[in-house]
Amino acid sequence: MATTAEFTYSQVGEHDTKESLWVVIDEKVYDVSKFVDEHPGGEEVMLDVAGQDGTEAFEDVGHSDEAREILAQYIVGNLKRDPSDPKPAVKARTSASSGDEGSSGGIPGIVYAVLVAGLAAGGYYYLQLQQQQASV
């Protein structure tokens, strides 16, 4: 279905309730009001981005091809950005982290945090042993 309707960020922002829930994903505007109750992640995650650019949240979750096909059914138009509109967070993060594909948050971020904490604890323990041996 070809979409020719254009909506401003302000217009999208007027649809921020469960009954009228619009969201922007990759510069496309979707009316997902009828899908809120069916969303596997629950309505709260959708309400968090209601009337806003939800691209970053959508991409961070890693939606399946099937989820993207479902989303396509709800397209109502394209976003017509104004220079005063908030910039999409996913675009800024992508340019700031080019080549840093494995650290987009989620499980890899947790693994790195645990690894750093483990190294810090190991270093502390090693220094404590060295001090005890030096004082004996």
Automatic annotation (TrEMBL):
The keyword Repeat does not apply. GO terms for molecular function: heme binding; metal ion binding. It holds the Pfam family Cyt-b5. The chain crosses the membrane at residues 109-127. SMART domains: Cyt-b5. It is found in: Endoplasmic reticulum membrane; Microsome membrane. Keywords: Electron transport, Endoplasmic reticulum, Heme, Iron, Membrane, Metal-binding, Microsome, Transmembrane, Transmembrane helix, Transport. This is Cytochrome b5 heme-binding domain-containing protein. It comes from Dactylellina haptotyla (strain CBS 200.50).
